[in-house]
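Run log, item B.
One chain of 77 residues. Sequence copied directly from the ordering sheet:
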Amino acid sequence: MEHNKDKIDEVTLALLSLVIHEDAYGARAWKGFDWDTMNRLHEKGFIGDPIGKAKSVTVTPEGIAKSEELFDKYFGK
């Protein structure tokens, strides 16, 4: 079965908004999602490079704004 990868990316980014935290180094989120999806989000400029030993990934300012927008789109009342 073929899946809509753009929609998967949107929902994943929306769910990342639940685990984004900011510290002295910027915004980060746990990267417990599918590697291919995380790579596509990186290519789109929403997150830093997910490849590495860290359990979290940086989230760009654009990624934060888009994740909040998409969370409201998919899960808002």
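Observations after the first pass:
- The radius of gyration is 12 Å.
- The beta strands are 21-23, 26-30, 56-58.
Flagged for discussion on Thursday.
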